[in-house]
Specification:
Order of helices and strands: EEHEHHHHHHHHHHHHHHH
Number of domains: 2
Helix content: over 70%
Number of strands: 3
Strand order of the largest sheet: 2-1-3
Radius of gyration: 27 Å
CATH architecture of the largest domain: Up-down Bundle
CATH superfamily of the largest domain: Type II secretion system (T2SS), domain F
Shape: elongated
């Protein structure tokens, strides 16, 4: 979402414009990070219930961002100037939203802004993590190297997300199809044969009575039920956009049986990898952890990491702070971080930690797929058997009566 700002530069020049960001705090930090004194920062109007749907069509796919970053790094390594690289990328990019952003970034650079300042105006596409790494590269003069780190990181993120998504698609599809078919049988077929059973006076099993009552209810009230479900979905979506809603959903995601374990490993791997890359890019550890907290993608982990950054400022060790939250950061995390702190190789230890948890995620996803398929077969088989039994048993009793 876009925020309008008014700020002054170090030389006293007045600067106004729009910056995209996830929230007001992130935008303020971005502006002050570019040595701007913020005079005003106008918050956007409250997002509508349908804004996530509109944002969905404007989003940039993670694979498009990976390809853009990789090509950008390759062009800079080949000695092509920043402006020419962006113009070439504009011609090669297929994503409309990313193409528009590249055009605006190129125009901003031509007008005298730095690359990080230009990227910060598109906070929805380029995360705070991305922008801060580019900013550190501008200070150290290692733009092509840092962009290579970024491309590797984004590629790993894309692979992990794809694996988790693939593991969830199959069971969701099977369960959805079962409920659709079951709903048609219960709502359309059962009410038509129910009258036959009632007229014959045959004794109906309990399951058949329940399904007949459900079918009659669906046949009479299906429209009202659809309206209620739509309203409920919209309310849940709107609640999910609030701070409290995000915290509740994120808390549920890490506490669910088995699935919660998978998500916790994903978040730890994401924290370790992003923090490692940031430290290697020259970002101070406290700032690296704060940036990683926005990049993890979970409100619970974000709060814990921000508390850890505050603790480091007070002089505490990161490993000690991790020990206090073993539910979310297993003991191996604090142990490896402790080794990194004592040997001065924290970035390397975090990188190893990330690779370890990436392998753990791969194993969990593989086990999840192997467990879900037989479990679904049993559950769907039992439910299908009940559906057919509720029809066949009364028919059998009806035949016996004659």
């Amino acid at each position: 979402m876009k925020y309008q700002y008014v700020a002054r530069t170090k030389t006293g020049e007045l600067q106004t414009g729009y910056v995209e960001g996830v929230n007001k705090e992130a935008v303020f930090n971005t502006l002050t990070g570019h040595s701007l004194f913020v005079l005003s920062l106008e918050a956007p109007s409250k997002p509508s219930i349908f804004s996530p749907i509109l944002d969905f069509f404007k989003r940039v796919k993670s694979i498009d961002l990976v390809v853009f970053t990789r090509q950008f790094a390759t062009m800079l390594q080949a000695g092509i100037s920043l402006g020419d690289s962006l113009k070439n990328l504009y011609r090669q990019t297929n994503s409309p939203a990313l193409k528009e952003a590249i055009f605006e970034i190129s125009s901003d650079i031509d007008s005298g802004l730095s690359l990080s300042q230009s990227l910060s105006k598109h906070g929805v596409i380029f995360s705070e993590f991305y922008i801060n790494l580019v900013q550190s590269a501008e200070v150290t003069g290692r733009a092509e190297e840092v962009l290579g780190f970024l491309a590797d990181y984004l590629e790993k993120e894309h692979i992990v997300r794809s694996k988790v998504r693939s593991a969830m698609i199959y069971p969701i599809f099977v369960i959805a199809m079962f409920f659709i078919v079951g709903g048609i049988l219960v709502g359309v077929v059962f009410p038509q044969i129910g009258s036959i059973f009632e007229e014959s006076g045959v004794q109906l099993p309990f399951v058949t009575k329940v399904l007949l009552s459900t079918g009659n209810f669906l046949a009479d009230w299906w429209l009202a039920l659809v309206v209620v479900l739509i309203i409920l979905a919209v309310l849940l979506l709107d609640y999910g956009q609030s701070k409290e809603g995000r915290e509740v959903y994120d808390q549920l995601s890490v506490q669910m049986p088995f699935i919660g374990k998978l998500f916790r490993k994903v978040y730890v791997a994401r924290f370790a990898e992003s923090t490692s890359v940031l430290i290697r890019g020259g970002i101070p550890i406290t700032q690296a952890i704060e940036i990683s907290s926005h990049n993890v993608g979970n409100a619970i982990y974000k709060e814990l990491l921000q508390e850890a950054a505050d603790g480091i400022r007070r002089g505490e060790l990161l490993s000690r702070l991790m020990e206090k939250n073993e539910t979310y950061f297993p003991p191996i995390v604090s142990q490896m971080i402790s080794v990194g702190e004592s040997t001065g190789t924290l970035d390397k230890m975090l990188s190893r930690l990330s690779k370890f948890y990436e392998r753990e995620v791969d194993d969990l996803v593989g086990n999840l797929v192997e467990l879900i398929q037989p479990a679904l077969m049993v559950v769907v088989g039992v439910m299908t058997g009940l559906l057919f039994a509720s029809i066949l048993l009364p028919i059998y009793n009806l035949v016996q009566a004659f």
